[in-house]
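Page 37, continued from 36.
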């Protein structure tokens, strides 16, 4: 069954980059279908809920995850995060933040939308408040180290900033994780409903196959991030994802004109292949009980764990790349 126009998938959320406190990117915009003349009408209730979730997913991707990235980069330079800078460090840095105002506006707009979801709305407001408190502390700390002001005061300002900075990071980590849980509880059910309707109305076209692959990718990630992953569960999540990727490849051969109507889909195709490889590597390491080397452990101690093949971080990096590029697709 062919549609006159593609249904545009809603964006996804990203995942966090550490294993201890995982922040996953969310898909924003990757399951909200667009409609046009010649298509079946979308479900208004689904669209309203999708619009509401998109505002909160934007805060997760644009505010929560960058804050966690900045935290991990900052702590990487410290011998003991509980102690903070001692004055003997040769270099300390972190990333600036700039999304607090955007997140606050998105949160206010989403909270005013129907349907009323008090737990979700409160969780989003808590994250927005935490990010608003944290952002100036991060940016002051960034300026301090970027300007090398520690050479003038023997790290005095850096030491005084450390406590509020770490506390702010902890608040954002807690509230961001809480919002992500609330979003995903609702979003997973919504996407399943939308997938069923997309297939019924338009068949297994590119929009449907893409949205389906994104859902299966998320399921694979969840299994791969477990502290003690089950080989059987990993295999059960990997196989349908690989089948979905193959179905997309088959469609590209049979109906290339569908892919020509989506700008830069070749980047997503490459990301799907990378995640397929990362999923296989994760399964092999767990199945074959391959221990991490000392060099691997050193990478895990810093922000470079994603370089270790078969690790949760490597799988997470591949997934987040896929989500970021999927969120940037332009469906004509």
């Amino acid at each position: 069954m062919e549609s006159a126009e593609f249904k545009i998938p809603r964006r996804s959320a990203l995942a966090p980059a550490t294993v201890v406190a995982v922040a996953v990117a969310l898909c924003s915009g990757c399951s909200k279908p667009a409609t046009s003349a010649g298509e079946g009408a979308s479900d208004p209730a689904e669209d309203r809920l999708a619009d509401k979730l998109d505002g909160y997913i934007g805060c997760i991707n644009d505010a929560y995850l960058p804050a966690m990235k900045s935290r991990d980069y900052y702590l990487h330079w410290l011998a003991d995060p509980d102690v903070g800078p001692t004055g003997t460090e040769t270099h300390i840095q972190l990333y600036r933040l700039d999304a607090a105002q955007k997140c606050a506006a998105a949160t206010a707009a989403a909270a005013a939308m129907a349907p009323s979801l008090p737990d979700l709305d409160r969780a989003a407001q808590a994250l927005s408040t935490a990010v608003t408190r944290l952002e100036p502390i991060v940016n002051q700390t960034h300026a301090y180290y970027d300007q090398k002001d520690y050479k003038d005061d023997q790290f005095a300002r850096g030491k005084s900033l450390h406590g509020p900075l770490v506390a702010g990071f902890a608040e954002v980590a807690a509230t961001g994780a809480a919002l992500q849980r609330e979003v995903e509880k609702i979003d997973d059910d919504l996407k399943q409903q939308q997938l069923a309707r997309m297939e019924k109305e338009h068949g297994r076209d590119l929009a449907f196959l893409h949205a389906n692959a994104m859902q299966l990718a998320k399921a694979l990630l969840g299994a791969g991030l477990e502290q003690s992953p089950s080989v059987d569960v990993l295999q059960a999540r990997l196989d349908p994802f690989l089948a979905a990727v193959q179905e997309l490849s088959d469609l590209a051969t049979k109906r290339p004109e569908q892919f020509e109507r989506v700008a830069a889909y070749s980047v997503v195709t490459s990301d799907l292949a990378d995640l397929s490889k990362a999923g296989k590597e994760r399964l092999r390491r767990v199945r074959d009980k391959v221990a991490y080397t000392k060099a691997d452990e050193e990478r895990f101690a810093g922000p470079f764990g994603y370089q270790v093949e078969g690790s949760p971080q490597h799988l997470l990096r591949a997934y987040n790349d896929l989500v970021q590029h999927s969120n940037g697709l332009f469906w004509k």
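The first helix runs from residue 44 to 76. Flag for discussion at group meeting. The chain has eleven helices and four strands.
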